[in-house]
Design brief:
Elements: H1 7-30, E1 34-41, E2 52-55, E3 61-63, E4 69-74, E5 78-86, E6 89-98, E7 103-105, E8 108-109, E9 126-129, H2 139-144, H3 152-156, E10 162-164, E11 171-173, E12 181-185, E13 188-189, E14 194-195, E15 205-206, E16 213-219, E17 233-239, E18 247-253, E19 256-264, E20 270-279, H4 282-288, E21 299-311, E22 315-333, E23 338-359, E24 362-379, E25 382-400, E26 405-425, E27 437-458, E28 463-474, E29 479-493, E30 496-507, H5 511-515, E31 525-538, E32 542-559, E33 566-585, E34 589-603, E35 611-612, E36 619-628, E37 633-642, E38 646-647, E39 650-656, E40 661-666, E41 672-673, E42 677-690, E43 693-702, E44 710-715, E45 722-726, E46 732-740
Parallel strand pairs: 1-7, 1-8, 12-17
Antiparallel strand pairs: 1-4, 2-3, 2-5, 5-6, 9-16, 10-11, 12-13, 14-15, 16-17, 18-19, 18-46, 19-20, 20-21, 21-22, 22-23, 23-24, 24-25, 25-26, 26-27, 27-28, 28-29, 29-30, 30-31, 31-32, 32-33, 33-34, 34-35, 34-36, 36-37, 37-42, 38-41, 39-40, 42-43, 43-46, 44-45
Length: 741
């Protein structure tokens, strides 16, 4: 079932590629503004690609292409300064006189400098994409990774330190739990970016479009003080403030159809995007077969869009909204109930963000967001509806004191509400329709106020430090946290960098955990991060990283067997090493190998002694490659091999005559291991012209060797026989076609 939501493969890949073909000519013909163009060269007249050019005090500018050429439009007139920057070259300020409505050709020559660029400011444990000098992951690579299905989260799992949960999009990092990974989109916390999330033997998929992102920063530890209430990792995403052109793209595949579009006004002050998609799996199942019994067949819908406005010379106002839903019924046979697990969800998310530059050395961003997620689950006596509401307001301010020091500060308030109604089994092992049950109708809420102060200080041309501190206050528990943090980077010599980080991190337990505590007395869970690593980066043609880490946990949520409440007496630790090697050969081949070793142990929830954490994956390796066979054909391959995750086996049972069921006797927590995980995926993309329009065809084959990777174990009625439940992600074939309209 892993390919069935390729809606987001090509919807994203295609929309942006197709639109790019049309937007260049459109903008040149309709613009009434001044067009500035030219060529950027370096010493000995070498062509400089990737040079950034911007008119001081505005957002008008461009980046030079592989031939050193650039072109952009501006509405500014009169005297101005054009600022030109490029890696390893001195910044150049060029006074210009802009005449309205006239074309200006300006060739620029840069000279070498000994002043180091911001490449070492990419902090420890980070994988980034965007307009910086240390890009390790691009949107094009995301959509081309076989098996990732153009899903940003799945792409991240090919990097060391992160793993998929049940082969879905939700991820875990360095032995932590999935809820310890925070996603930020344009300052807003995004807690439910998935469909089919936590549905039995059904892979989740994210609803984030990687082509709409201008910046991706995934940090698996040692992250900035600007991020609060998160224990393990942060995925910080920044989208384009304004669309890059106008156009539409349609997609029809074996399992889905979608229509997307972008709009940019002639004066480039108003922009909009939209996307709509629907999932239909009957053709997909007809080709690949069904590996489970469904009622109903998995189905999903999505609708979303953005609206952007340019305000003044430096301001931008952007509004974003997204709706998604899903529904599935899948057969499962357990010790006490044989029937369909029925799951459905609805998710709404909206965000508004205002960005402005009050001066040439300051930047102010303010935003507000709201999200509502509703999940329905039904299996035997279990029948619940859960609702989560999040709303958040945030303000961030950056001040550049000089060319050596930046000051960042921010304030945020987040409201969280949780509601659950329905029935749950009184005993977790008895799910029969007539089993003893509890009726739930509870509601709880909390607010969290957070603030941070951080400085980026370049002590020398080769050394920077980022000291910071944040504090958070939680209204439900009336408890506060205080987190000092520091990271550094040292450029040993050209291309060779050492980075490290140390800091304290807190995350408040979920409202569900607080409901099982006594008088909401739970403390925020804490982790102390120690990280040290080395990187070799030769202009992104060769990247090699090795990084060691240790995390010490305290105040974890732990079940108290004496009073049957949750308390904060848990602890744990994790240690490991991440290794990453990536190479790029011209425009023909891109590939990487990642390996991660991790040893994660926790005394948390029901684990009364230190035991392997629920997501302790000891060894994990990924191999990814993409090869341009020609200008029209791209081939890709990915391979994953990893240690199986821990689980708690059943060692025996006793018979309960009052309920007429067997009661399982469990072994030590997480004392068993799933078999080794093993999977190979391949895909191909063909770019061509159809009816005079840009088109792309996709062929993908997942799990080529049809490995029976394990989803879980179940048992017969008396627990005498352990029965494997294999994942539904068997060998599958997917084809699709996208067309620019």
């Amino acid at each position: 079932m892993k390919l069935f939501f390729i809606l987001f493969i090509t919807l994203t890949f295609l929309v942006q590629i197709g639109i790019t073909f049309s937007q260049v000519s459109d903008s040149a013909e309709t613009s009434q503004f001044t067009i500035i163009s030219g060529k950027v060269t370096g010493e000995k007249n070498e062509v400089l690609s990737g040079a950034n050019l911007v008119i001081e005090g505005t957002i008008d500018g461009a980046t030079s292409d592989e031939k050193g050429l650039y072109e952009f439009e501006t509405e500014k007139t009169g005297q101005a300064n054009l600022i030109v920057t490029s890696l390893d070259y001195a910044t150049k300020n060029i006074p210009i006189d802009i005449l309205p409505g006239q074309k200006m050709v300006l060739n620029v020559k840069l000279t070498k400098t000994e002043i180091k660029t911001d490449e070492i400011l990419v902090t420890a444990s980070s994988f980034t994409s965007g307009n910086n000098n240390a890009v390790t992951l691009t949107p094009l690579e995301i959509v081309r990774i076989p098996g990732a299905d153009a899903d940003l989260y799945r792409a991240i799992t090919t990097f060391p330190g992160s793993n998929q949960v049940n082969e879905g999009s939700r991820i875990t990092v360095r032995g932590g739990n999935p809820n310890e990974v925070l996603t930020i989109v344009d300052m807003a916390s995004l807690y439910n970016p998935f469909i089919f999330d936590e549905t039995f033997n059904t892979s989740s998929y994210s609803t984030i479009n990687p082509w709409g992102l201008k910046g991706i920063n995934f940090t698996s530890g040692g992250f900035s003080a600007k991020y609060g209430n998160v224990l393990s990792a942060v995925l910080d995403l920044k989208s384009y403030d304004m669309p890059q052109g106008s156009g539409m793209f349609a997609w029809l595949g074996l399992a889905n159809a979608s229509l997307s579009g972008v709009y940019l006004s002639d004066n480039r002050k108003i922009g909009a995007t939209f996307t709509a998609g629907k999932l239909f799996l009957e053709p997909f199942f007809a080709i690949n077969g069904k590996h489970s019994e469904y009622s109903p067949i998995p189905q999903s819908n999505q609708l979303g869009g953005t609206l952007s406005f340019t305000l003044g010379k430096t301001g931008n106002l952007k509004m974003y909204g997204n709706y998604s839903d899903d529904k599935v019924g899948i057969k499962n046979a357990g010790p006490t109930y044989d029937g369909f697990f029925e799951g459905s969800s609805k998710n709404y998310f909206s965000n508004i963000k205002l960005t402005t530059a009050p001066s040439v050395s300051t930047l102010l961003s303010v935003g507000g967001s709201f999200s509502l997620n509703e999940n329905n689950s039904k299996y035997g006596v279990l029948n619940t509806t859960e609702k989560n509401i999040y709303s958040k307001g945030r303000a961030e301010y950056t001040l550049q004191l000089n060319n050596k020091t930046d000051i960042n500060t921010g304030l945020e308030y987040e409201y969280n509400e949780y509601d659950i109604t329905g029935t749950v089994p009184l005993f977790s092992y008895n799910l029969a329709l007539n089993a003893p049950s509890l009726t739930l109708d509870t509601n709880s809420n909390s607010g969290r106020l957070g603030a941070y102060l951080e400085a980026q200080i370049r002590l020398t041309d080769d050394l920077f430090v980022i000291p910071g501190v944040r504090t958070d206050y939680h209204s439900l528990s009336s408890k506060a946290s205080f987190d000092p943090r520091i990271s550094f980077g040292y450029l040993i010599k050209q291309n060779h960098t050492v980075r490290g980080a140390f800091g304290l991190y807190h995350q408040y337990p979920s409202l569900l955990d607080y409901s099982r505590s006594r008088e909401n007395e739970l403390k925020p869970e804490s982790a102390l991060h120690y990280i040290l690593g080395y990187e070799f980066n030769n202009d992104n043609k060769i990247i090699f990283r090795v990084e060691g880490y240790y995390k010490d946990y305290s105040d974890l949520v732990l079940f108290n067997r004496a009073n049957f409440f949750y308390g904060s007496e848990g602890d744990g630790n994790v240690k490991g090493v991440d290794v990453f090697f990536k190479t790029k050969i011209s425009n023909k081949f891109t590939g990487w190998i990642s390996y991660a070793y991790s040893d994660s142990k926790r005394r948390q929830f029901d684990a009364q002694i230190l035991a392997p954490s629920n997501y302790d994956i000891t060894n994990n390796m990924s191999i990814v490659g993409s090869y341009n066979l020609s200008d029209k054909i791209v081939l890709g391959l990915s391979y994953k091999l990893s240690t199986g995750k821990p689980y708690t086996p059943v060692s025996g049972s006793t018979f309960d005559s009052t309920m007429n069921v067997y009661v399982p006797i469990y072994s030590e927590i997480n004392s068993g291991r799933f078999p080794t995980y093993d999977r190979l995926d391949m895909n191909a993309q063909y770019i061509f012209s159809l009816f005079g329009k840009f088109a792309v065809g996709v062929l993908a084959v997942n799990n080529i060797f049809n490995k029976d990777n394990l989803y879980d174990y179940t048992y017969n009625s008396d627990y005498s026989t352990q029965l494997p439940i294999y994942t539904n992600n068997k060998r599958t074939l997917y084809v699709g076609l996208g067309l620019q309209l």
